[in-house]
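We give the chain.
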Amino acid sequence: MLLHIGNKSFAVCLAAVMLLQTHFTLGSERSPLEAFPAATDGMQRFVIELAHKERSEEHDFRVEIVVGKQMPTDGVNLYRLGYSIERRALQGWGYNYYEVVGKGETISTLMAPPEGAPMVERFVTAEPLLVPYNSRLPIVVYAPSGCQIRYRVWHADEVFNEANRR
């Protein structure tokens, strides 16, 4: 049964309202990235979006986050940056983000390179951080200007090795 309102039926009005509601609901889907603030002065925001995995698969994976800088080295010594990566809670959202902290000084071993050895361009890193794999949310990292963020995905072997009892 249709209710008539003037020359228009109630069904037509209801259909139009439902269509508009669907349009605005679908058009207003928000990205989880909108919850994260923009980078402050002197910082950059990096976003890592992971390939989708089923929830049952994700526990076998980890993401290694690495902060570093491309810089000339002597090709002999080991170099490290004085940064660390710390997890922070995004208040009110239940999400985490990561912040690179520290002075970023370059430290190295002190071996003497051969005389006349050429400088070698390398990606010098700080201590990496291993975090759980979650393909439903972006991994957001704030780092000082001039730094780069790189990452690797680690996968656990399906075989468990047995430890020796001694």
